[in-house]
Structures are given as structure tokens and as C-alpha cells.
């Protein structure tokens, strides 16, 4: 498989951008390959600058649930462009998408549109703090909530009581109010509440963790978070940037039947355009300026082209809900076949159209167990598949995304190659 053109572009890109990319995982460093420079995409296929074709399981990290360049979505973008790219003034489309989101995700009685998941989470936390008049938040080790200062933390050494910055350039002052608990570990949350009575504004969680590879919530874990936040006057924030409109049309809140106080959205809500949203109970969102005293703004927030694309994506999903059963069935087929192929040498976590294969013989239920996986074997698996036309996440700790455009044939081809990799490795 040729890669000259990608190699050439990558060399040049590195002169102008750190690592040659605009987001680190794209640089393929974890898998030791040259990143593919993508020229175009259609349906479940992406095409690189060397003319190679791949079945794409990254789907732009989630937004592409309908497949790439979905005709009605492209048309919505084109038509919106004709009428002007941005006005910095209210539009009917913003009202329309807010009404749709609120209907599909009833916990979002009121919301704000922003331009990324990072911005959605950052703003939601500010609103939660403004509303509760408390400073501290609890997040979970291994959950990702974008790259804002206060959330780029790792657990400190002092038995999960304090967080320390997980990136250079983040002052300690920015993370001193972030507490880190363990995903699927109720006791770690209880301990933080006990040690910080009356000080915790919110607990933020990925209802299905999908940024340490896919890790499912244990039975009752989300319900426990709903109860303990309520008992302590803290807010529960579901970061549904990945799960929103993916696990079901109403996201994880609907899927698990739990109503959080606030929800953050990104990825699918923009259908491929840079859109995020945060929202929740009306009384909470009423603290946001100009109604209240929590400031948050955005020059391009609610951008008409991005909003048009989001509207068409959500409308299509809403009127074709059979998609969820279909993508869930295909992903379950992948998961079963992978379990079969890799046996006890791997663990496959799957829910709906999200899946991860971890190369470990231990069950993967939390951050610690994700770290038992053999990342070198993942890199070999990635390379084997890439060279045969399957484009996977270039990291063990990311999800595999299945879209409505993936055919049964695509799935079977993927299974055949993964099975071949497993047997080649075994010999
Ligand atoms: C991707 C992601 C974010 C950040 O969204 P960006 O649009 O990349 O800023 C936040 N939370 C979760 C759960 C995500 O998966």
C-alpha cells in the first residue's frame, strides 16, 4: 500500500504544526505509523492522498453516525452557505435545533450552543458552580472531558483527594478544585463527598466511558451517582459528547433511564461541523448571562451552517430510529466475532455502536484494568488492519465507532481480517 504522498505531507506538516497535526492522536505516535492524509470520504469509506481506500471505524471520533458526506446533510450545508456563513445575531435555525434537542433529550430544558465539546463541558461546569455557589467538582480517572485547564488532571498521590495537572502549562491553582474518583467505584465517590461536605458543585461523568477505550458502567453505578449527588445538593452532569444521539436518540440518559441535572453534547450534535451544546434544568441554566451572572459567550456559537447540518442530522436520526438497532446489531456481531477470534487473550467491551478490543486477559471495568492491555499488540493489530484497508483508532484507548453506512459486508471483511491477525499472531 502506497504512502508516499501522506509521508510527504506529514513531513511538511511538521514544519508548521506541532507533530504535524491539529489534535495529537492523529499523529499515529502510539502505533508508530505515518498518518494517512485524508482526501475525501463517502459513507463508511475514507480515501487518502495516495489513493488508498479504507473502511473507517473512526468516523471522525463519533460525529459520522450516518456515514460520511450523507446526501441530505451535505445539501443542508450547501443551502445554508448560500444564505451567508455567519451573522452574530439570532436565527430561526438556532431555535429549531434547541427545540429538537430539548424534545429528544428532555433533561435539557434550556441550553446553549457552543463550538466544541471542550467548550460545552467548560461552560457547564461554570454554570454548575454559579448555580450551587460551590467550587469543587468530581471527575473520574480515565474519563475525558476536553482540554480545559480544570479538567486536565490526574489523581494526586494523596489517596484520591487532590488532583494535579496532567499537562504542562496548567497552573496548580486551576486544578485544586477538581477531585478525582474511580469509575465504577462507589466508595471512592462516597469518600470524596465525606471529605468535602457542602463543597461539591457537581459530579461529571461519561455515562459510558469511551476515552480510555470503551468501559461500561457497572449495574447501578449511574443510579448511585444520581442518588449521592441529590443527597448532597450537588449536580449530576452527564458528558454525552460521545453517547449523545449514539446510544439511543436520547443518548445515555434515555438509554439508562436516568435524568441528570445537566448534559453536555458535541460530536453528533453537529453532524460533522464544530458544534457543542450544554444545558439542563431551567433553574440551573437561568444563571447564564444575560439572565444571570455566569458569563459565557461565543462569536460563532449557533453558526447557521453548523446548525443546519446539526438539524438535518438529528432530524434524520429521529425519523429513522431503526438505525440504532441496526448499528447495535452490527457492532455486537463484530464484538462476538472478535471474542471468538482472540479468545482469552483479549477482552471486548461493546455497547450499542461503541466497541473496544483490549489486549489483556483481565476484565476491563475501570481505568486500572485498561492499563493492563498490551499496547504493542494493539499497534501490531492496527498496522495489520491499516495495511489491509481497515482504518481503526490509532490508539488502544479509543473507541471503535460503527455508523449506519457500514454494511454487513464491511463488518464481515473486518472480522475476517481480525481473525487472520489473531491466527497469524498465534503462530
Ligand atoms: C470528544 C470529547 C470531548 C471534547 O470535545 P471536543 O469537541 O474535542 O472539544 C469532551 N467529552 C467527551 C466525552 C468527548 O468524547
From TrEMBL:
Cofactor (UniProt): pyridoxal 5'-phosphate
One Pfam family per UniProt: Aminotran_3
Entry keywords, A to Z: Cytoplasm, Isomerase, Porphyrin biosynthesis, Pyridoxal phosphate
Any one GO MF annotation of this record: glutamate-1-semialdehyde 2,1-aminomutase activity
Enzyme Commission identifier(s): 5.4.3.8
Reactions listed under catalytic activity: (S)-4-amino-5-oxopentanoate = 5-aminolevulinate
Single biological process term from Gene Ontology: protoporphyrinogen IX biosynthetic process
Family named by the database record: Belongs to the class-III pyridoxal-phosphate-dependent aminotransferase family. HemL subfamily.
Protein name: Glutamate-1-semialdehyde 2,1-aminomutase
Amino acid at each position: 500500500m502506497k504512502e508516499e504522498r501522506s509521508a510527504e505531507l506529514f513531513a511538511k506538516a511538521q514544519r508548521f504544526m506541532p507533530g504535524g497535526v491539529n489534535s495529537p492522536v492523529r499523529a499515529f505516535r502510539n502505533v508508530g505509523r505515518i498518518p494517512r492524509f485524508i482526501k475525501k470520504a463517502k459513507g463508511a469509506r475514507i480515501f487518502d492522498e495516495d489513493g488508498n481506500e479504507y473502511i473507517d471505524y473512526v468516523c471522525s471520533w463519533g460525529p459520522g453516525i450516518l456515514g460520511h458526506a450523507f446526501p441530505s446533510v451535505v445539501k443542508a450545508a450547501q443551502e445554508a452557505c448560500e444564505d451567508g456563513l455567519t451573522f452574530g445575531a439570532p436565527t430561526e435555525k438556532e431555535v429549531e435545533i434547541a427545540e429538537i434537542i430539548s424534545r429528544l433529550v428532555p433533561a435539557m430544558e434550556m441550553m446553549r450552543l457552543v463550538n466544541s465539546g471542550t467548550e460545552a463541558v467548560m461552560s457547564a461546569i461554570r454554570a454548575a458552580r454559579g448555580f450551587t455557589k460551590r467550587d469543587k467538582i468530581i471527575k473520574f480517572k480515565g474519563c475525558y472531558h476536553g482540554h480545559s485547564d480544570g479538567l486536565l488532571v490526574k489523581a494526586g498521590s494523596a489517596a484520591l483527594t487532590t488532583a494535579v495537572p496532567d499537562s504542562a502549562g496548567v497552573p496548580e491553582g486551576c486544578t485544586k478544585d477538581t477531585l478525582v474518583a474511580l469509575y465504577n467505584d462507589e466508595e471512592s465517590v462516597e469518600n470524596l463527598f465525606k471529605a468535602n461536605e457542602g463543597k461539591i458543585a457537581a459530579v461529571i461523568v461519561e455515562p459510558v466511558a469511551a476515552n480510555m477505550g470503551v468501559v461500561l458502567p457497572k449495574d447501578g453505578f449511574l443510579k448511585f451517582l444520581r442518588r449521592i449527588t441529590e443527597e448532597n445538593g450537588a449536580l449530576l452532569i452527564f458528558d454525552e459528547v460521545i453517547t449523545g444521539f449514539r446510544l439511543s436518540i436520547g443518548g445515555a440518559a434515555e438509554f439508562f433511564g436516568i435524568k441528570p441535572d445537566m448534559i453536555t453534547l458535541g460530536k453528533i450534535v453537529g453532524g460533522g461541523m464544530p458544534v457543542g451544546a450544554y444545558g439542563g434544568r431551567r433553574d440551573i441554566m437561568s444563571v447564564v448571562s444575560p439572565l444571570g451572572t455566569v458569563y459565557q459567550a461565543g462569536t460563532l456559537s449557533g453558526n447557521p451552517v453548523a446548525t443546519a447540518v446539526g438539524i438535518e442530522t438529528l432530524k434524520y436520526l429521529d425519523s429513522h430510529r431503526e438505525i440504532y438497532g441496526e448499528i447495535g446489531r452490527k457492532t455486537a456481531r463484530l464484538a462476538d466475532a472478535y471474542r471468538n477470534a482472540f479468545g482469552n487473550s483479549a477482552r471486548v467491551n461493546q455497547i450499542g455502536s461503541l466497541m473496544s478490543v483490549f489486549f489483556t486477559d483481565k476484565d476491563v471495568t475501570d481505568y486500572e484494568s485498561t492499563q493492563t492491555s498490551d499496547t504493542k499488540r494493539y499497534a501490531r493489530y492496527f498496522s495489520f488492519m491499516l495495511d489491509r484497508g481497515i482504518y481503526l483508532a490509532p490508539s488502544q484507548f479509543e473507541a471503535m465507532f460503527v455508523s449506519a453506512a457500514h454494511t454487513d459486508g464491511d463488518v464481515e471483511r473486518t472480522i475476517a481480517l481480525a481473525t487472520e491477525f489473531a491466527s497469524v499472531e498465534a503462530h
